[in-house]
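Our preliminary data section would be incomplete without showing what the modeling component actually yields. Below, a chain of 168 amino acids is followed by its predicted structure, encoded as tokens that our downstream tools consume directly.
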Amino acid sequence: MTMNSKRLLSSLISFSKFSSNSEADAFKIGDILRQTRVFTNADVVEYSKVSYDSNPLHFDTQCAQNAGFPDRIVHGMLVASLFPRIISSHFPGAVYVSQSLQFKQPVYIGEEIIGEVQAINVRELRKKHLVKFSTRCLKDGDILVLDGEATAILPTTTIELQRSKEWQ
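Predicted structure:
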């Protein structure tokens, strides 16, 4: 099984409770959506190009080691990009309204990261739904690397399995 197949299978397993469109499967407080991602050197290079963030901590091992890291680190905002992706891939048409972030641990190239969003408040707003999420990223199964909260306006609370192309 390829890495992409494993990631897709992992995503499908995480979302299996939402596989039908019944009212019982509506997204509600306490529900969690997860996605696994391994950030590559190519991801770091491409993110640097669009963000103009060329901090040597991301490209130069010696610089990273001088700063106290064992190796180059992934841009924190690149890791945080998991959150809007998780939300929009399950609620097409969602509008990302806000995000707060607290970076807890570095993420290194090649580490498997689990991004998670959990609904902590859902309220109806003019035929749409304003949802506040607890957001976090973990590595090695349970090490918290990123923590925060996000708010999004969802067109519906009925979840869809991922329709967008899996990140390569």
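Residues 31-39+74-158 form a domain with the Thiol Ester Dehydrase; Chain A fold (CATH 3.10.129.10). Confidence is low (pLDDT under 50) at residues 1-24, 163-168. Preliminary results of this kind motivate Aim 1 of the renewal.
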